Amino acid sequence: MGGFGKLFRTTAFKLSVFYFVVFTATIFLTLGYVAWNAQRLVYNQMISTIDAEITGLAEQFERGGTRRLLAAVNRRSRTPGASLYLITTRDGRAIAGNVEALPLALLEHVGQHHIQYERVNDDRPARIHRAVVRIYHLPGGSRLLVGRDIEEQQRLREVIWRAFGWSLLLIGVLGGLGGWIVSKRMLKRVEDMTATAQGIMAGDLDGRLGVAGTGDELDRLALNLNAMLDRIGELMAGMRQVSDNIAHDLKTPLTRLRNRADEALRRASGPDELRAALEAAIEESDNLIRVFNALLMIARLEAGNASELMADCDAGEVVAGVAELYEAVAEEARIPLRVSIGPDLHVNGSRELLGQALANLIDNAIKYGASPQDRGNEGIVVNAEARAGRILISVADRGSGIAEVDRERVLGRFVRLENSRTRPGFGLGLSLVAAVARLHGGSLRLEDNEPGLSAVLDLPQSGAVPASARPPSPNRA
Amino acid sequence: MKILIIEDDREAAAYLAKGLREVGHVVDHAADGLDGYGMAEAGEYDVLVVDRMLPKLDGLSLIRALREQGVATPVLILSALGQVDDRVKGLRAGGDDYLPKPYAFSELLARIEVLARRRGPGAEAEATRYHVGDLELDRLSRRVMRAGVEIELQPREFRLLEYLMKHAGQVVTRTMLLENVWDYHFDPQTNVIDVHVSRLRAKIDRGQDIPLIHTIRGAGYMLRDSGRSA
Fold it and tell me: Are strands A311-314 and A346-349 parallel, antiparallel or unpaired?
């Protein structure tokens, strides 16, 4: 019962039932219309036949009076498939014709009537028939009845009704069977899908929905769901990668922290040493907190919705401010920092986030961008300009740069290139910059400064693109 | 100074209260928003330290309610969220300062003292001149004199010194300087502030017998006339 219950509840089965009802109604209406028309046609034909007969008989009567009429009626009565004729005297006695005497009362009424009668002359036992007749009173008092049997018309109706019945049965059987097969097939595919989905939920993340290859709607659904599952799989892999990295990268400073505390406990000979060890431990944990903050911030930015932070903001002011903030650091590192800022640098964005992004880029340039032989010559060039609806902020250094193969990779979280491993940092700076750029509807490009690295923040000029994570579009609204 | 801590994490509150009492403050503690509101309503505290996420009445609603009641006690918001938009929301609700968790105690203490001072006597009208020892800063003419000799400062150096002098005798952390002098709240990655302070120090203290800009280990900086006060 469960299986059948499920079958009855399928959409396919319900559709079959619906179509069955619609087809039945259609056939009923069509056949009804045909029957009605056919009957009307047959009936009208009968009436005109009767009219013709009467015209003929009237002619005979005019030519030869009652006798000729009687002869004509007798003759006609005998022809097979003849119409109905009856002539009676005024008191109702039959004189000629092929109809048994009818109640006298009927014959008194001139005009058209539907009657029941018995046929005479045939060898077959008399049977009640139905007929349409016309009655005339002839001059001299006798009555004339001319009519047609309408039994055929009745049979026609019966045939049509029977046809209707049979077609109903046929539709019922075929429709039911078809519905059952289709529902069963659908049910099976849906159940296969359900089973796969349950498997996936249970942990088999590699499971994919079956595709029948017919290109129907279920196939399209399955293909789309499979594509979705692939995407989720990629994201899951990415997440796993990130969390592995996080675990690994946080483990290193945590271990260092633990070891220092341990060593201080074992070795420290006086309060000063203990104090130094504690201070180092605090510094180490502050670093960890900074890593967490950066990670949280990237996650927040990548979640995409920060429209509250967005306002009209002068990127030129941000560049000037941050460059000024770092200029002192660059000078201390003996790297010249040159800044040029063009006009019209308004973006819809967050001053705070853009400042952070720029700070990361300049900080990177100071940390990694100085090559010993070049030191003091060209240094770092920060340039901000508006070009064709975009705002381009570049931070270019003359350091060793980033090899082309690494440029995409280095934007990922916790990615640290070999030559930077020895220097402080966690490999989150550029990820954060890229996330900020995306949030502003722009991008971060790493280019070759020949030699050195040029990091370009490409942002939409104010009014070009609303402040949501959206791929950069070159046109300006 | 009388401080009310409204924080549901008892351990965090105890750590905070202990630290504040050690430096001589009177500390009360409320463990949920409603209690906190009841205690703060009378307005007899100098500073409120309010956690954002509190049972019964959340921190921002509490601050909003206090401000509607006309309670102007300075509020320092503590939050585990610590993102840029959370800071904006916190300040918009009527908070005076915002500190993301986890925080360094020295940072918190420095901020509390600055907040309390803001309310204290002499804070109503901002002075146009600051004096610390033989250092003098005129905010209107934007001139700085040390022992009668004018010192040339860049605009940003001037603002840095102005902030230090305004809070003379108080610890000012690096983050506070970044926030108040540069108006940025992000993590600057490097010791940018130290570099700026040491440049300023070179201009102010070089060649002088008594240094005025002092580095407070593990906390930040303080400008004070070491000849006079400790």
Answer: antiparallel
What CA dihedral angle connects B96, B101, B104 and B108, to 10 degrees? 20
Nearest partner of A20 among A170, A149, A233, A195, judged by Cα: A170
**Closest chain B residue to A309, measured at CA:** B85
Please tell me chain B's helix, strand, coil percentages from 3-state DSSP, rounded to the nearest 5.
40, 20, 40
Question: What's the gap between Cα A473 and its chain centre?
Answer: 28
Residue A253 backbone phi and psi in degrees, to 5: -65, -30
Cβ contact A282–B104 (<8 Å): yes
Return the structure tokens found at A348: 């819809």
With beta carbons under 8 A apart, name residues in chain B contacting A355. 184, 186
How many angstroms separate the CA of residue A283 from the nearest CA in chain B? 9
Q: Which DSSP letter does residue B26 get? A: E
Q: Is 0.85 exceeded by the ipTM?
A: no
Q: What is the pLDDT of residue B221?
A: 92
Q: Nearest residue of A to residue B101 by CA position? A: A289
Q: Are B116 and B74 in contact (CB under 8 A)?
A: yes
CA–CA separation, B23 vs B3, rounded Å?
Answer: 12
Report the candidate in A409, A451, A403, A398 with the shortest Cα–Cα distance to residue A434.
A409
| Rounded CA Rg of chain A | 51
pLDDT digits (tens, 9 = 90+) for A24-44: 888 888 888 888 888 888 888
The one-character DSSP state at A353 is H
The mean per-residue pLDDT over the stretch A103-122 comes to 73
Q: Considering only CA atoms, which of A222, A197, A194 is closest in space to residue A210?
A: A222
Question: Cβ of B192 and A297 within 8 Å?
Answer: no
Q: What pLDDT is recorded for position A471? A: 44
**pLDDT (0 to 100) of residue A472:** 43
CB contact under 8 A, A324 and B189: no
- Who among A297, A322, A355 is closest to B83 (CB)? A297
| C-alpha distance from B158 to closest chain A C-alpha (Å) | 14
pLDDT, mean over chain B: 85
Q: C-alpha A134: how far from its chain's center?
A: 69
Q: Which amino acid belongs to residue A443?
A: S
Q: Which residue of B79, B81, B85 is the best one to mutate when testing the A interface, meaning the one whose CB has the most A CBs within 10 A? A: B85
Residues of chain B with Cβ-Cβ distance to A294 below 8 Å are: 187
Instruction: Pick B126 or A79 by higher pLDDT.
Output: A79
Picking from A293, A296, A325, the nearest residue to B192 by CB comes out as A325
Number of alpha carbons in the 13 Å side-chain half-sphere of residue A435: 23
pTM: predicted TM-score of the whole model, two decimal places: 0.62
> Which has more confidence, B189 or B120?
B189
All residues at 6 or more sequence positions from B97 whose CB lies less than 8 Å from its CB, including other chains: B74, B75, B76, B77, B111, B114, B115
- Per-residue pLDDT, averaged over A350-359, amounts to 88
- For B6, residues 6+ apart whose C-beta sits below 8 A from its C-beta are B29, B30, B32, B33, B35, B36, B39, B40, B48, B49, B50, B51, B54, B59, B62
Task: Name the token pair of A20.
Answer: 């069955």
Return residues 83-122 of B near A (CB < 8 Å): 83-85, 88, 100, 102, 104
Token reading at B151: 């010192």
What secondary structure letter does DSSP report for B178? H
Among A289, A307, A309, the strongest candidate for a mutation testing the B interface, having the largest count of B CBs within 10 A, is: A289
Cβ neighbours of residue A285 under 8 Å, at least 6 residues apart? A257
Q: How far is A330 from chain B (nearest CA, A)?
A: 9
> Are B189 and A429 an interchain contact pair (Cβ–Cβ within 8 Å)?
yes
* Position A426 pLDDT exceeds 70: no
Q: What pLDDT digit, counting tens, does each position of A191-212 carry? A: 888 888 888 888 887 888 888 7
